[in-house]
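Blinded run. Sample ID left blank on purpose so nobody reads anything into the name before looking at the predicted structure. Input follows.
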Amino acid sequence: RDTFFRFHRSFTHSAVMLPVWALLITWTFWELSGRKNFRLLWWAAVAGLASHLILDWLTNYGTELFWPLSTARLALSWVFIVDVYVWAILLIGMVAAIWTQREWVARTALGVLGAYFLFCGASRAYALHAYEARGVTGRTEGFPRPMDPLHWTIVRDDGAALHWVNGPRNDTFVPLHDDNLLPKAEATEVVKLFRWFADFPLVEKIEENGHTVLRYRDLRFRSALPGGGVREGMFVIAKVVFDERGNVIAAGLASGEE
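Blinded prediction complete.
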């Protein structure tokens, strides 16, 4: 999992490396298909790769678009990581285009999809503006909810606490202060990796299997579900386990989704 966590949406998703990957794909299809228009194949590969990078960039997961120049994970957070409306528009458009064999049908479907993305971006901007108009302080971001482009989860870090806002619900999380265990956890490679990935990391002290554990999760992934429940945002967490003397005995990534 550490390897996946570190490299997923990394060098393979770099806009800087896109021409190289497009060349590799073009060469492969050139050899397999025997088609002689190398330039057309290359532009087709560029279009396919670019659309993939843009679609990933639109989500809230984070993509290293400028690797190796930068390892920053960029995310517009306009749509949820898996958006059923995007899949529906693409599926209906593809079936309709194949059925009718009309180019304008495919173009229309792509136009509808583009309009949906722009709507989501505008909806997010409006939600953030409305929240920040209350006079709040600190860094504030808006994150998409599953199957609900009209409402957004707001997360704010005011330095003293993290605030998770979902409509009228406002949950406050106070960061852990522990001069003994916390520095040891922060020195582990897994926590350094998690902090590089996370946008709003939260550290919590829990008891698990008779051991004290510092658990790291990212409030960016704490989501309100359509039925009214809350997904706690622990599909990837970092855990540091201590013995009774306060020594680190285990540290790693895990899936702790409830």
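Unblinding after everyone has recorded impressions. The chain has seven helices and ten strands.
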